[in-house]
């Protein structure tokens, strides 16, 4: 007869592998901590960004209230690149996005975009002057407003309503799926359409850098593919820089140029997305195989 611990190992785990390869969440955390022993140097992170980072984080210490989540955290990404962060729950992945955008208490370190200091700017200033847009993990559409009204809300920092309307029309020119829903309430949209609307609303301010928190969360597989195709188009056609947190580690690393494995608020491993996909330890801990 199996004991409770063995039962927990079968039930609670990461990845999409068979039952005999899915390990418990607790074991993932314990074993992932060992990866931190080979923490990559800042020079290695800069090399992944082709030596010319558009956005660079150096020595960041950040958290919420008195709780410190990120410890001496570094990150570097070049213009037009994509970076995906994976790791156990509680590793600090979303906190990185929150810190970049100005939602955390930062006590040390710096965040620079194009060499300009962004660390202490407000989220509004980071969007307007730093070109950083944040696409939230949670459903953030206004359900009682129409699709068009939701898009217009994305231009709240524009100099005029007319500028917002022009930017909204450019989005409609791009995405037929939204044109069909233009005058419908956002609350009736499918999960994939809502995510498209959230991404599109972030584009109204024409940002250079997109922070994307869990783009696949809660979506059916066909919509997950659609969302990643949209992000791929934004990166490779429009030159957007994308920093993403994605619980579906395989999908995220397949998409990204650069992959980071976070453990306890630090970068434990870094490499190209392909290299982390082929790493047996990453595969065993996060890819279900």
Describe the structure.
Helix content is 40%, strand content 23%. With 289 residues, the chain is an alpha/beta fold. It has one domain: P-loop containing nucleotide triphosphate hydrolases (Rossmann fold), CATH 3.40.50. The longest helix is centred in the last third of the chain and has 16 residues, at 221-236. The radius of gyration is 20 Å and the shape is globular. Residues 1-21 have low confidence and may be disordered.
Helix content: 25-40%
What is the name of the CATH architecture? 3-Layer(aba) Sandwich
Using DSSP, what is the number of strands?
A: 10
Q: CATH superfamily membership, which one? A: P-loop containing nucleotide triphosphate hydrolases
Shape: globular
Strand content: 15-25%
Give the number of helices.
Answer: 13
Report the radius of gyration as a whole number of Å: 20 Å
Low-confidence stretches: 1-21
Major β-sheet profile: 6 strands, mixed
Q: List the helices and strands in order.
A: HHHEEEHEEHEHHHHEHEHEEHH
* End-to-end distance: 26 Å
Total tally of structural domains: 1
The CATH topology assignment is Rossmann fold
Strand order of the largest sheet: 6-7-8-3-9-10
Average pLDDT figure: 89
């Amino acid at each position: 007869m199996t004991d409770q611990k063995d039962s927990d190992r079968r039930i609670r785990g990461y990845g999409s592998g068979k039952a005999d390869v899915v390990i418990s969440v607790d074991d993932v955390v314990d074993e992932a901590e060992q990866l931190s022993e080979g923490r990559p140097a800042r020079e290695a992170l800069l090399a992944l960004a082709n030596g010319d980072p558009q956005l660079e984080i150096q020595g960041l210490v950040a958290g919420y209230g008195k709780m410190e989540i990120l410890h001496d955290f570094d990150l570097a990404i070049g213009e037009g690149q994509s970076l995906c962060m994976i790791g156990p729950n509680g590793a600090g992945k979303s906190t990185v996005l929150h810190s970049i955008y100005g939602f955390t208490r930062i006590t040390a370190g710096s965040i620079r975009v194009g060499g300009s200091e962004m660390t202490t700017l407000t989220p509004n200033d980071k969007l307007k002057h730093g070109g950083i847009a944040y696409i939230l993990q949670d459903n953030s559409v206004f359900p009682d407003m129409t699709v068009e009204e939701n898009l217009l809300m994305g231009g709240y920092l524009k100099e005029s309503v007319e500028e917002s309307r022009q930017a909204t029309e450019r989005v409609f020119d791009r995405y037929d799926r939204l044109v069909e829903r233009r005058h419908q309430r956002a609350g009736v949209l499918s999960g994939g359409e809502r995510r498209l609307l959230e991404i599109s609303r972030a584009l109204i301010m024409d940002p250079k850098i997109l922070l994307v928190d869990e783009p696949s969360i809660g979506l059916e597989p066909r919509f997950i593919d659609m969302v990643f195709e949209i992000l791929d188009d934004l990166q490779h056609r429009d030159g957007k820089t994308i920093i993403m947190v994605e619980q579906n580690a395989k999908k995220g690393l397949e998409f990204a140029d650069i992959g980071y494995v976070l453990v306890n608020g630090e970068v434990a491993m870094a490499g190209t997305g392909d290299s982390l996909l082929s790493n047996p330890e990453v595969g065993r801990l996060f890819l279900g195989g």
